[in-house]
Amino acid sequence: MKMHLRLVRNKRGQFIVIAALLISVMIISASAVMFSAVTYFSHERWEEYIIVIDGIRTGTASVLQLSLANYTQTLNNTVLKTNLDAWRQDVGRAYSGFGAILSSTPASGTYSAYSMSLNYVNGLASNWNQQISFSAANTTGSLNITSIGLEGYKFKASVFLKMQIADAIYYAGKGSDPNYLGVRVIVNAEGLEVITNLQKSNFVLFQIGGVNQTYTFLRYYESVSHSGAPALNTYVYEMRYEVASKPGSVTAKVSVVDARGIKVTGQATLTPIDV
Amino acid sequence: MRLHVERLRNHKAKAQCGQMRVIEAIMASLLIVFAVVFVDLFAVAPVSPKYESGELEKIGFNVLHDLDEEGLLGRFVCKDPPEWANLTSALAASLPSDVYFNLTAYDTTGNVANNLPVGYGTSRVFVNSTYVASVTYVVPGYLRLYRPRVLVLQLVRG
Fold first, then answer.
1. Interface pTM (ipTM) of the complex?
2. What are the chain B neighbours of A75 within 8 Å (beta carbons)?
3. Which of A23, A73, A218, B98 could form a disulfide with A238, with the two C-beta atoms 3.0–4.6 Å apart?
4. Looking at the domain A163-274, which fold is it?
5. What are A89-135's pLDDT values in tens digits?
């Protein structure tokens, strides 16, 4: 009788072990299934696709930049269209494994930006020989990556260079010292970011009354007001040249080519103010 | 009557015994699961090739992208003549010191454009390495010249 009971109890103990193992297996299996369900998409090569998209976006902005540089120096207004077509083909070839298809629509018509009116033709716009002059390029890209079913990913790219001929400052020489007149300009890039890295060599033209001038180049942050005029409070470039006396007004023409090769020419008639 | 009461008592005792068995089974299961999870916490898994090459790809792309944003990549690659030595120096300075690289530039027709090798590390490093990451980057041109170059940057960790 005792022997029989022990056998039964032993069998029950085995049952608990087996039941515990089975439940453990069930829990672990369920966890594994849940984990794989949650992390299923993380095994996709998202990083690689993001890298490709970023590369194409940056490249499109570069195409815009070099096309604007070309346009402002050659005035060929079809250059952006030609380059974007070539870029579309090259992107397709370079990322053929991803099935990358790029299309671009250059801006056309009048846009309002930076408190100005930008009139685009074939994605390019320029308004020169003004006190505030600019060169601009703008396009909208649309990207498909067929290998992951990405369609119609839209992005914008724009390049902008603005030059403002701010004022002219008259420096009266003491005694026999010569007198000087300084023409000051402010240069901005897209987002109205102030460009501060330009050198004398970037200012390819400086004329007063249609005559080239020999000048001293200065660059500094201007926070001082002159003759009651409000302080500019920005980074300025000054072209200072010698004058016999204080002129009533001067017509200054300035051309700047920035580090990207984009050119702007501005012109303004200024009344000199005393320092 | 006494027999009936005795039977009821036995039945109740058996039922309580069964509940205890279920609780024991659950506790034992949890013990096993916790043991598995605990061991897993201390397990040092080997580096996944997918993860490692993904990391290297990110590093490589970021370096090329930063050079491009600075306007240096176009100058090194698309200028006439290109500055391959400067590109090598810039990549060596920007990449981590334990990462070896080899860059090949192609023109749009698929011809190799770099007449000088751009790399750091011997070819044996690339042959012997288990994980080789590869990044493709296209540079459209430099200044006003559209002259695209397809850069293929291979990276291995030393």
1. 0.76
2. none
3. A218
4. Immunoglobulin-like (2.60.40)
5. 999 999 988 999 999 999 999 999 999 999 999 999 999 999 999 99
